[in-house]
Amino acid sequence: xxxxxxxxxxxxxxxxxxxxxxxxxxxxxxxxxxxxxxxxxxxxxxxxxxxxxxxxxxxxxxxxxxxxxxxxxxxxxxxxxxxxxxxxxxxxxxxxxxxxxxxxxxxxxxxxxxxxxxxxxxxxxxxxxxxxxxxxxxxxxxxxxxxxxxxxxxxxxxxxxxxxxxxxxxxxxxxxxxxxxxxxxxxxxxxxxxxxxxxxxxxxxxxxxxxxxxxxxxxxxxxxxxxxxxxxxxxxxxxxxxxxxxxxxxxxxxxxxxxxxxxxxxxxxxxxxxxxxxxxxxxxxxxxxxxx
Length: 292
Description:
single chain, alpha/beta, 6-stranded mixed β-sheet, 6 strands
């Protein structure tokens, strides 16, 4: 029996959402390399999109934001991917900036900045089949971010090439790659074998099988996939005009300015963000001095 690969936003949301916290916990376990005991009961879905109620639901949201303690794991499914990451990266940086821009009183500010938000943006990319595009050599690659084991992850972006995972046998996948492979499985035999010992995936598997047998659902998804492809193409084209580096630098500078204006020194900002002192001091020098 054939089952659909997870290439479409609506199918992704219908299978992976706050109504099935078991798979949410499984995803966190796989991505962060944690045990069930550490994860169970500590995960939330932070974006509010509900499961789709009709085929007319076309609104574009961030695919999934999972909260686990100080972590935010942002999952973005990019079908018909053409190579621009700026929209997703800037969104991740915005989550960081917003975290430090809440209204707090002056006595709490320094202690508040010691609380780190750890944002991981994972781009789950399917490339177009009808274009001659050279796939990246690596099937999973960190494309931007600060990754320090001793200090913790501050911000990281991981680029995942789902086309490559689709070609790898399920029994050749490392544990930390299981989630990526799950999205690419296209037949019931492999799906059941792959999830045989994964009790947290039972509801996911049952739902996927049910949807695979629903011809009307498949027709709706196929129609929506074509629309989503066109929308993604327009969004990525627009984002390329902004520029990768410009978006990242802008959000980084906003964060430095906010922390400095809230009373932190350049060395303290470096400690909490891992941004170099040279960059921090350059940004601080552009802030107009107050006239007393």
